[in-house]
């Protein structure tokens, strides 16, 4: 009987440990999966670019940019931001945006366009907020000093 109880206890402890470790793994990249993994990010960035090209205040910033290159860079960067399995190999946010003289209003507008794009592709408000919190910390690297 004692052996049986011990056995049961061991199984219980093992299950708890497995439960917590798989929970941790799931939690770390949960946002990535919640927004549809790589395909979801591609859809979002497509919608974002469609919003940018229709915006008179923001489009001029991209006058000399390659849309294809921007899309790929933004996809990889966002994928990393949401703890996905991609690696962004581009320049730092400071290096890219320095010299563009981005003001507060235009930064906010780009964030608005991203929110609209997230709505376009039906990303939940909870995931939207998580993404926005992660991007908000980049603000000082992007707005002109
Ligand atoms: C949190 C906000 C932002 C993030 C995370 C972000 C991120 C990025 C990334 C990842 C790239 C692509 C880098 C590459 O692979 O070449 C990029 C490029 C670019 N970003 Fe941003 N950006 C932000 C805000 C802005 C704002 C507010 C503007 C302008 C109003 C802007 C204008 C540009 C332009 C014009 C490029 C293309 C540069 C080129 O052609 O080399 N970005 N950004």
UniProtKB/TrEMBL annotation:
Gene Ontology molecular function: any one: heme binding
UniProt xrefs under Pfam families: Bac_globin
InterPro entries: Globin-like_sf (IPR009050), Globin/Proto (IPR012292), Hemoglobin_trunc (IPR001486)
Highest taxon of source: Bacteria
Keywords: Heme, Iron, Metal-binding, Transport
Listed CDD domains: TrHb1_N
Provenance organism: Colwellia hornerae
Protein name, per record: Group 1 truncated hemoglobin
Keyword Oxidoreductase: no
Keyword Heme assigned: yes
Spans traversing the lipid bilayer: none
UniProt binding sites for heme: 97
């Amino acid at each position: 009987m004692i052996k049986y109880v011990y056995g049961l206890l061991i199984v219980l402890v093992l299950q708890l440990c497995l439960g917590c470790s798989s929970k941790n793994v799931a939690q770390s990249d949960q946002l990535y999966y919640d927004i549809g993994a790589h395909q979801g990010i591609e859809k979002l960035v497509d919608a974002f670019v469609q919003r940018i090209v229709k915006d008179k205040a923001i489009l001029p910033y991209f006058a000399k940019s390659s849309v294809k290159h921007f899309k790929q860079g933004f996809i990889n960067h966002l994928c990393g931001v949401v703890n996905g399995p991609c690696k962004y190999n581009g320049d730092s946010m400071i290096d890219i945006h320095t010299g563009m003289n981005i003001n507060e209003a235009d930064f906010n507008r780009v964030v608005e366009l991203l929110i609209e794009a997230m709505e376009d592709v039906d990303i939940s408000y909870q995931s939207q907020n998580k993404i926005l919190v992660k991007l908000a910390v980049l603000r000082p690297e992007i707005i002109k000093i």
